[in-house]
Amino acid sequence: MPTVLRKDGFEVMIYTDDHAPPHVHIYKAEGVLIVNLGSEIEAPSVRKSHDLKAKDERKAFVMAVENQDFLLEEWRRLHE
Predict the structure, then answer these.
(1) Could you read off the pLDDT of 23-71 as tens digits, one per residue?
(2) Do 8 and 27 meet the contact criterion of CB atoms below 8 Å apart?
(3) What element of type H or E holds 32?
(4) CA of 17: how far to CAs of 23, 34, 66, in Å?
(5) How many CB atoms neighbour CB 13 within 10 A?
(6) Model confidence, pTM
(7) How deeply is 10 buried, as exposed, middle or buried, from its count of CB atoms within 10 A (0-12, 13-18, 19+)?
(8) DSSP secondary structure code for residue 80 in this structure
(9) Using CA atoms, how far apart are residues 41 and 15, in angstroms rounded to an integer?
C-alpha cells in the first residue's frame, strides 16, 4: 500500500489490490478516514472514519478535496 501523499502528520495511502470506486485511506496516529475520490465531475465524499478527532477528520477531508485530481491519477496509475 503505497503512501502517495504526506502532509501535516497525515499519510494518504492507496491499496494496490483494493476495489472500486477510487478511494484513499488517510491515516493520522491510530485513526483513519476513507474518502471516495469521486471523479472529474463528482466531488469526493467520506466513506468511513475511525478513531480520528473531528478536527483531524475535517483536515484530512480538505486534503483529499484539494488534491482530488492528483489522487485520482495515482489511483488509476496503481490500478492499471
Answers:
(1) 999 999 999 999 999 999 999 999 999 999 999 999 999 999 999 999 9
(2) no
(3) strand 31-36
(4) 12, 16, 25
(5) 16
(6) 0.95
(7) buried
(8) -
(9) 23
pLDDT band at 1 (very low <50, low <70, confident <90, very high): confident
The residue to which cell 496509475 is assigned: 77
In the 8-state DSSP scheme, what is residue 2? -
Q: By three-state DSSP, how is residue 64 classified?
A: helix
Please work out, in degrees rounded to the nearest 5, the angle formed at the alpha carbon of residue 31 by the alpha carbons of 35 and 24: 25
In the chain, the amino acid numbered 44 is: P
Residue 49's SS3 state is strand
